[in-house]
């Protein structure tokens, strides 16, 4: 039941993201950087479940559009720290608000108790590591 629902929700997000000029991976990057700057594209890729070589064009595009910045890492001048810009934060917030409005329509179909139970269950399950579920790390997952 989860996989078809997840695919449907991602399909519903695509027009919203397109409206904000974002791809699914670009949105994942902006959400990932919400926790604070990332020490390198490899670290960020791992955090969001992306392939570090495939994320480079996404990062290049976001930087070119002024949504993220790459600056030298003070601890290692060969590395770059990735961070959201104010414009990137605004775009991310607008896209996230529109996506949450769509989610709200879906969640309104549930009673208050069912909704609370679903959200509590999702919070608990989202903290389980991929390795714990799968038993091994078999590469990146889609956002």
Characterise this structure.
With 143 residues, this protein is mainly α. It has one domain: Arc Repressor Mutant, subunit A, CATH 1.10.10. The chain is 60% helix and 12% strand. It contains seven helices and three strands, in the order H-H-E-H-H-E-E-H-H-H. It has helices spanning 2-19, 24-32, 41-48, 56-64, 86-107, 112-126, 130-134, and strands at 38-39, 68-73, 76-84. It has a three-stranded antiparallel sheet. Helix 1 (2-19) crosses helix 5 (86-107). It starts with a helix and ends in a 9-residue tail after the last helix. The relative contact order is 0.14. The mean pLDDT is 88.
Could you list some keywords that capture this structure?
143 residues, mainly alpha, Arc Repressor Mutant, subunit A, 7 helices, globular
- The average pLDDT value, as a whole number, equals 88
Strand line-up in the sheet with most strands: 1-3-2
N-end to C-end Cα span: 18 Å
* CATH architecture assignment name: Orthogonal Bundle
Helix percentage: 55-70%
Could you give the count of β-strands? Answer: 3
Characterize the overall form: globular
Spans where pLDDT lies below 50 across 5 or more residues: none
In the residues, how many domains can be counted? 1
| Helix and strand element order | HHEHHEEHHH
């Amino acid at each position: 039941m989860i996989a078809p629902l997840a695919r449907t929700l991602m399909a519903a997000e695509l027009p919203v993201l397109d409206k904000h000029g974002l791809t699914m991976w670009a949105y994942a990057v902006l959400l990932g950087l919400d926790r604070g700057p990332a020490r390198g594209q490899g670290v960020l890729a791992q955090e969001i479940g992306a392939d570090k070589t495939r994320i480079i064009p996404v990062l290049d595009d976001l930087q070119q559009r002024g949504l993220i910045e790459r600056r030298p890492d003070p601890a290692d001048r060969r590395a770059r720290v990735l961070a959201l810009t104010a414009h990137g934060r605004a775009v991310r917030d607008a896209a996230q608000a529109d996506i949450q409005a769509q989610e709200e329509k879906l969640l309104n179909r549930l009673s208050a108790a069912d909704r609370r139970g679903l959200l509590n269950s999702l919070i608990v399950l989202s903290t389980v590591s991929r390795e714990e579920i799968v038993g091994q790390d078999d590469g990146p997952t889609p956002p």
